[in-house]
Design a protein that fits this description.
Blueprint (H helix, E strand, L loop, with lengths): L5 H24 L2 E7 H5 L2 H13 L2 E7 L1 H10 L4 E4 L2 H9 L3 E17 L11 H9 L5 E3 L5 H12 L5 H4 L3 E3 L4 H11 L2 E5 H6 L6 E5 L6 E9 L9 H11 L2 H8 L2 E2 L2 E2 L2 E2 L5
Length: about 280
C-alpha cells in the first residue's frame, strides 16, 4: 500500500501555484507592443501625454523606439516593431505597397519651420521655404541637417531640390549633417548660431533656444502629416497584430484624436488631429 505523503503533496501544489503565478505574470507583462516612431513625437512630449491615456483605455503598454522615419520603417521591415507612427507619406505608402504594413492611416499634422538666428544675417525671413534655402546656399552661414533619413530630413531634401540644389552636402559649404534626432540638431544650431529645419512640435517644446527664432513659416509646402501603420503579420507572424491594431484604432478614434488636440505647451497646440478628414 502506497503511503500518502501530505507534505510532498503540499510542496507540489505550492510549486504549481508559483508556476501558475509566473505564467500569469508573463501573460500580463506580454500585453505590450513595440512602436517605432519619429523622434519628433517623443521629443515634443506628445507620447508622454498620449500613451498614458491609451494605457488607461486599453491596458496595453507601448514601448517606444524613437528614430528617424526611415529607420523606423526599417524596423518594421525587419519585424522589430508591431506598429509605426511616422511622417513621410511617400515612404509610408511604399512600405505598405511592398507588403510590410496592413494599412496607412492619417492621424494628425503640424508643420515644419525654418529656424535661425534672430538677427537673420542671411535675410531669409518670410513664408517661402524654397527661396530661403536658395538664399542660404549662397551665404557663408551654417545649416544643420539631421542627415538621418528621417521624415524631417526627407522633407528638407525635397525643399533643397525645389530650390535647384540636388546635393546640398556637396555644393553648400555651410551644410553639416549631424546624423541625429530633432532635439540634438536644434542644440547644435543653438550652440553654433546656425539655421535648421524643424517640426514645430519639437521647436515649441525645445528649451535651449539661445538666440534662435522661427524665420520661415506658413508655406503650404511645410505641411507635415503623420500616419500610423500596423506591421503586416503575413511578413512577420510573431508581431502582436491585435494589440497593435488596438492602438491604431484608438489613435484615430474620437478619444484618441481629442487627446492629441489637448496637448499644448504654453497655450499652443502642437499637433492637429485629422484622421476623419484625410
Amino acid at each position: 500500500m502506497v503511503k500518502f505523503d501530505r507534505r510532498a503533496l503540499l510542496r507540489h501544489l505550492g510549486m504549481f501555484a508559483i508556476t501558475l503565478g509566473v505564467a500569469g505574470a508573463a501573460v500580463a507583462q506580454d500585453k505590450s507592443i513595440v512602436m517605432a516612431s519619429t523622434t519628433s513625437t517623443e521629443q515634443s512630449g506628445l507620447f508622454a501625454h498620449l500613451l498614458p491615456a491609451f494605457k488607461k483605455a486599453s491596458g496595453i503598454d507601448v514601448k517606444v523606439v524613437a528614430l528617424g522615419t526611415g529607420q523606423a520603417l526599417d524596423m518594421g521591415r525587419r519585424g522589430d516593431a508591431d506598429v509605426l507612427f511616422v511622417h513621410d507619406q511617400a515612404a509610408e505608402e511604399k512600405f505598405v505597397a511592398e507588403g510590410y504594413g496592413l494599412k496607412r492611416s492619417p492621424v494628425m499634422y503640424n508643420d515644419f519651420v525654418l529656424i535661425g538666428p534672430k538677427a537673420d544675417p542671411v535675410g531669409v525671413k518670410g513664408a517661402d521655404i524654397v527661396a530661403a534655402l536658395g538664399t542660404l546656399a549662397k551665404s557663408p552661414s551654417s545649416f544643420v541637417s539631421r542627415g538621418d533619413k528621417s521624415g524631417t530630413h526627407a522633407a528638407e531634401l525635397r525643399y533643397w531640390k525645389a530650390a535647384g540644389i540636388e546635393a546640398p552636402k556637396g555644393t553648400y559649404a555651410g551644410y553639416q549633417e549631424c546624423g541625429c534626432g530633432m532635439g540634438p540638431a536644434l542644440n547644435i544650431a543653438a550652440s553654433s548660431n546656425a539655421y535648421v529645419l524643424a517640426d514645430r512640435g519639437t521647436w515649441l517644446s525645445f528649451k535651449n533656444r539661445a538666440d534662435l527664432a522661427v524665420l520661415v513659416e506658413g508655406d503650404k509646402r511645410l505641411f507635415n502629416q503623420y500616419g500610423v501603420i500596423v506591421v503586416d503579420p503575413a511578413k512577420h507572424p510573431h508581431t502582436k497584430t491585435a494589440l497593435a491594431q488596438a492602438f491604431a484604432d484608438w489613435v484615430v478614434s474620437a478619444e484618441g484624436q481629442a487627446t492629441i488636440a489637448s496637448y499644448q505647451i504654453g497655450g499652443q497646440q502642437l499637433f492637429f488631429p485629422n484622421a476623419a478628414t484625410k
